[in-house]
Design brief:
The structure is a homodimer. Chain A is globular, with a radius of gyration of 21 Å. Chain A has helices at residues 74-79, 123-129, 162-165, 218-221, and strands at residues 15-18, 23-25, 44-45, 59-64, 70-73, 83-90, 113-122, 138-149, 152-161, 171-176, 179-180, 190-192, 205-211, 225-227, 233-235, 242-247, 253-254, 257-266, 272-278, 286-287, 289-290, 300-308, 313-322, 345-351. The longest helix of chain A has 7 residues, at 123-129. In chain A, strands 5-4-13-8-9 form a five-stranded mixed beta sheet. In chain A, strands 6, 7, 10, 11 and 12 form a five-stranded antiparallel beta sheet that branches. By secondary structure, chain A is mostly beta strands. Chains A and B meet through strand 1, strand 11 and strand 24 of A and strand 1, strand 11 and strand 24 of B.
């Protein structure tokens, strides 16, 4: 007989968007971002099946336009000076499902993002050990995940401009929340590019190649490009200023009485400067309370206390503004592949 | 170090809609309905916290307008003649999220349904042992789950008309898929009302009361009522004829080449008689292939082979018709609480 009577415990689960490859959302409406997000509910976004672990997985090769190519193994990396940083990672397709003119692709809602503490080695430190040649323009990062894309067998590969690669906050991480990064999130090495959308933070990082040209891999010049309505295009890079209402949910029947409207806000450059809430379809705005002083590369949790009155419906909008003066638009800038959605989020709820 | 390298295994999860009380969807797009659905991914729909198990949980009392009130305990029930039946259970709020004019309440998508093998005792057998008094009109079923609703502390209670209660297929189940029903799904006893929406299949069933009046509990006369636009209202009872496309997903970028469009279809009375698919926005229809001869109370899995051509977009609609001639409408009958949605499902996909 089933005597597991502790099973009254309720856990929010990842929301499955695809099984092959695995794409699942963080259950963002049912967890807190005040502490770091647990690895087990960190969103998963893959282009290929999970790579199989081999001895080669534990090495990191740096080559190309350098005076001294280097091969690090796992224990070498762990001996180098390290740093820990709390950093959010958000998929550039986060919120794609909300484009009014629908876009093909994974229909991510609000949960293609997570945040926690990454520990690793500064990429700058490693690159400087190689003695970079003059004229290097980009650094290519190759993951061990691979498969067929547009009839070609390729690895997941992305580049950074050399200036960004040398930014002291870019790191090669080997721990998440105090433990080795799990296999599903890039074990043993994951590039972490704070402030950029998640495609830049290459998992299962295995090779770093310095080049003098522009990298033209499929995930650089085909995917992860904004193709705008006016025919122009632009690389996807920095996270847009954004916010999400975690609770209540859109179209929820809430109980009358005291509630906290709560959520998160974030930006890719600078820090969030304010979060505002509107109850009159964005005519007037009031400040939400921030949980802490907003920091670079991190979400800030916010809340707004309210008394819901039985029978009433509420239209609730939230927008974030950052220290560079950027603010969420009423409408997201439509682009063919559906990246960077950051329109003001609004919900309606009704009190019972 | 994290050496769990089997973690490349991918499992679809329940989709969380609410944590208190627990409401989670079956990951319907990522599992098969050909075999019974595993208990662990069976959708969960609760009104209250899970009831705590006490000695009283193991008894079932039948009283009211009967000559002989009865009290069964768990082992009594298990000694009575039993039967097993594969039965689908679908929440009446399944697909609520798809009403064009949005409805407040849990925003269920396609996964508020599951199907498997229930084993138990015919309700009719038990009721007849009580010698039902003349004039009994309804049978009330009380679950052990309870809480505050509209300022009153109440149990989850529902009634059936006496004729329905005496239908030989209505049973008091104690096993699901060959094991005792799990705590989250009603252990030890769950009423199973084949062909009716899930609210009728009362979990943690503890008392059965025969009455001569109309039962007016909140879950009978407030919730689970169709309130139509024309001011009329009607009790929610039989499942509507319905179907869901499981794969591909709406707005999916599919690979070019051979695919199987696949899904499920079901109805509450009679059996599915055909499933049709349209590629021209419902002007013309072609038959899908049914996995087996459709049976009463069960979904039938269907498929349609197709060759997707690179660069093309496809508009795909599916509709089911049942043996009573009922067919899915182009638009669902809107009702204030959002029950019984069964409009023709359509998706668009694009081949890469």
């Amino acid at each position: 007989m089933n005597m597991n009577f502790n099973s009254g415990k309720v856990r929010p689960h990842l929301t499955t968007r695809s099984v092959i490859p695995e794409n699942q959302e963080t259950p963002i409406h049912f967890i807190s971002f005040i502490g770091p997000v647990a690895d087990t509910i960190f969103y998963r976004r893959n282009h290929f099946p999970y790579p199989i672990l081999t001895p080669e997985s534990f090495t990191l090769k740096i080559s190309g336009s350098v005076d001294r190519a280097l091969l690090f193994n796992y224990s070498d990396l762990l001996k180098l000076p390290s740093k820990s940083k709390r950093v959010l990672i958000e998929c550039s397709g986060n919120k794609r499902a909300y484009f009014v003119e629908k876009v093909f692709g994974e229909q991510w809602e609000n949960g293609a993002m997570s945040e926690g503490i990454w520990k690793g080695v500064s990429l700058k430190t490693l690159l400087e050990l190689t003695r970079i040649k003059a004229g290097v323009s980009e650094v290519v990062f190759r993951g061990r995940d691979a498969g067929v894309k547009s009839s070609q067998y390729i690895h997941f590969e992305r580049s950074l401009p050399i200036a960004k690669a040398l930014h002291p906050d870019v790191m090669i991480a080997y721990e998440y929340n105090g433990k080795p990064i799990s296999h599903k999130h890039g074990f043993p090495f994951r590039l972490i590019v704070p402030g950029w959308y998640g495609m830049a933070s290459v998992k299962w990082l295995n090779e770093i190649i310095l080049i003098k040209d522009n990298f033209t891999g499929a995930f650089q010049t085909d995917d992860y490009v904004y193709y705008f309505r006016n025919g122009k295009s632009e690389q996807v890079t920095t996270n847009h200023v954004n916010s999400t209402i975690q609770q209540p949910l859109d179209k929820q029947l809430v109980k009358s009485g005291a509630h906290n409207i709560r959520g998160i806000a974030w930006t890719g450059s600078g820090a969030v400067s304010k979060v505002e809430i509107s109850f009159d379809k964005e005519d007037s705005w009031e400040p939400a309370k921030l949980e802490k002083t907003p920091k670079e590369y991190q979400t800030v949790s916010w809340s707004y206390p309210i008394e819901f009155k039985s029978g009433n419906a509420y239209h609730i909008s939230v927008r974030a503004t950052d220290s560079e003066g950027k603010t969420q638009p009423a409408e997201a800038l439509w682009n063919k592949k559906g990246y960077g959605y950051n329109a003001i989020m609004h919900i309606t709820v009704k009190a019972e």
